[in-house]
Amino acid sequence: MSDLKRIIWLASYPKSGNTWMRSLLAHYFMPKGQAPDINHLRQFTTGDTRQDFYDKAAGRRYDDGSFEAWLNIRTRVIELIAASKPGHHFVKTHCQTKQLEGVDLIPPRYTAAAIYILRNPFDLAPSFARHQSTDIDSAIERMCDSEAVMGTETGIYDALGRWDDHIYSWTHAPGLPHHVIRYEDMLAKPAKVMRSLLGNFLRVPVDPPKLAAAIKATTFEAMKKQEETLGFVERPDHMQSFFAKGQAGVWRHDLTPAQVGRIREAFLPTLETWYPELLDETEEFARAG
């Protein structure tokens, strides 16, 4: 095969804005009126947990189930994904960039670059709890678990690990060109964030009217309305709605002081790097308990 160093990863811990970014990029890059709804984003982006790629790699219905079988087939799956579209293309992942049992979860030979989206862990915890259909304390425990994984019924996995390790793996991967976006900045100044991504990182012309239209079409309210009218195929069966609040600062109402303190203690060095503006407030909040 020709050079397959084509994948631009759209990487994030779950519930950090990956779907929003995929939709926004689709609306920006695709011709007017042709951007897919939330259930057909695969027309523009790909994901590394798609069943059809695993079936193709296995030459049959892939339903082996075990983590070991997933590791054994993953490299072949990523090769197929890289070859599925000409040139650079976006691929969603929730995996860390690391080796497990000698297998590169994000193989460098198929990787061109990465866009990493992060969300502050205080807001992430209640959203992740809804996604996992569990209580917030259990969600926090998973966010602190270095061996945390998510998986489908057929055995296609996301190796999540700890929230802080996830960020570190993507922002310190040797030789990986990457661009970091905070979910909170996307909410506050989407045009500024996207201009930087498009012009400075992806090196593509920035068309202000087209960008404004893409941002308008992919507001949280617009995507929530799509889910209400069309459903959302990526929503876990146990989850009532994928798009719940989509706000910054919900932790002030959703978390207890003990939960804030637990998150703060677990991830303090990473918070100091990426969310220094939350340090004083969360410390005071935790002490109030």
In words, what does this structure look like?
The structure is a single chain. By secondary structure, the protein is α/β, with parallel strands linked by helices. The chain has a single domain (7-287), classed as P-loop containing nucleotide triphosphate hydrolases (Rossmann fold, 3-Layer(aba) Sandwich), CATH 3.40.50. The protein is built from 13 helices and nine strands. It has helices spanning 18-29, 51-58, 67-83, 121-132, 136-143, 163-171, 183-188, 190-201, 208-217, 220-230, 251-254, 257-274, 279-287; strands spanning 7-12, 46-47, 89-93, 99-100, 103-104, 111-118, 149-151, 157-159, 178-182. The strands form three sheets. A five-stranded parallel beta sheet has the order 2-3-1-6-9, with helices on both faces. A two-stranded antiparallel ribbon has the order 4-5. A hairpin with a 2-residue loop joins strand 4 (99-100) and strand 5 (103-104). Helix 4 (121-132) crosses helix 5 (136-143). The radius of gyration is 19 Å and the shape is globular.
